[in-house]
Amino acid sequence: MTSDINILISKSLKGNRSSQKELYNLFSPAAFAIIKRYIKDDFEAEDILIESFIKVFENLNTFKNEGSFGGWVNKIAIRESLMYLRKNKAFNMFIEVDNIHIKEPVSSDDNILFEDLLKILDELPTGYRTVFNLYEIEGYKHHEIAELLGISTNTSKSQLRLAKDRLRKLINSKNKINTA
Question: Which pTM value belongs to this model?
Answer without folding.
Answer: 0.77
